[in-house]
Specification:
Helices cover 15% and strands 34% of the residues. Strand 9 and strand 10 form a beta hairpin. 46% of the residues are buried. It is an alpha+beta fold. The longest helix is centred in the middle third of the chain and has 12 residues. It binds glutamine. The site of glutamine has 16 residues, from strand 6 and helix 4. The site of glutamine (GLN) has 16 residues, from strand 6 and helix 4.
Length: 237
């Protein structure tokens, strides 16, 4: 499983979310604490953030197929990247999946940024020509974009029913909302005074982190955090 992190709140630096915390994504790339599948996340990294302008929020991405810990430039630039909404990930490729930057989250449709922790049988996903890569996560992202993010919970429950072995932790943001599903892996939430963090695992040992129960949808807006139970669709186990 990869590890991902989302932020919605005040403008903060990317480094303060990803590089500086004692157990942030940088450390999680080689020493995750809660990862159940895979030992480390050496198959790439991606940082997405929303850039606020008069025309609205524009998603920007920086992705690589190399390990985050080996990047010689990102540590210099990340303190200068500030955003109110961030989606970042480090990747442990599933067996058989291509290792390439285009297979690395976050994926985008031009409005949303989306990351997937997990695995899904590509045979249960609809054929699509809009996926960036043949990687399961890229095809899942294209499927979710095509169905619309308002249907995220239903889409995950349907795919999880079609592939009972799937793990479908998805994290998505559009600049004003963060959405996440918990389906087979961990997710924690930190409510800070300046915003909300959703992360595969806590980036520090603050007691304010809460674990989100399995099979839930989380929605974060500037006003509130909402958790909704997800049920497998009819005909499932
Ligand atoms: N299945 C996805 C991939 O191969 C995600 C892997 C993961 O969560 N470790 O990239």
């Amino acid at each position: 499983m990869c590890r991902h992190l989302g932020w919605l709140g005040a403008d903060v630096t990317v480094s303060s979310l990803v590089l500086d915390p004692p157990h942030g994504l940088l450390v999680q790339s080689y020493a995750p604490r809660r990862q159940k599948h895979g030992l480390m996340n050496a198959d790439g990294w991606g940082i997405g953030f929303f850039d606020r302008s008069l025309e609205g929020d524009t998603p920007r991405r920086w992705r690589s197929q190399a390990p985050l810990w080996g990047d010689v430039s990102f540590g210099s630039v990340a303190p200068a990247l500030r955003s109110h909404c961030v989606v970042a990930a480090v990747r442990s490729a599933s067996v058989g999946m291509p290792i390439e930057a285009s297979a690395t989250a976050p994926f985008t449709d031009g409005r949303w940024l989306l990351s997937h922790n997990g695995i899904v049988d590509r045979a249960v996903l609809p054929l699509t020509s809009s996926a960036e890569s043949a990687c399961d996560s890229a095809i899942l992202a294209a499927t979710i974009f095509a169905r619309g993010l308002d249907a995220l919970g239903d889409t995950i429950a349907e795919i999880g029913t079609a592939d009972p072995l799937a793990r479908l932790n998805v994290l998505a943001a559009n600049g004003s909302r963060l959405l996440a599903t918990v389906w087979g892996d961990t997710l924690s939430i930190l409510r800070r005074t300046d915003g909300v963090v959703l992360a595969s695992e806590p980036y520090d040992d603050a007691p304010e982190w809460d674990d989100v129960p399995d099979r839930h949808l989380v929605e974060v807006t500037p006003q509130r955090v909402t958790l909704t139970a997800l049920n497998a669709t009819k005909g499932s186990r």
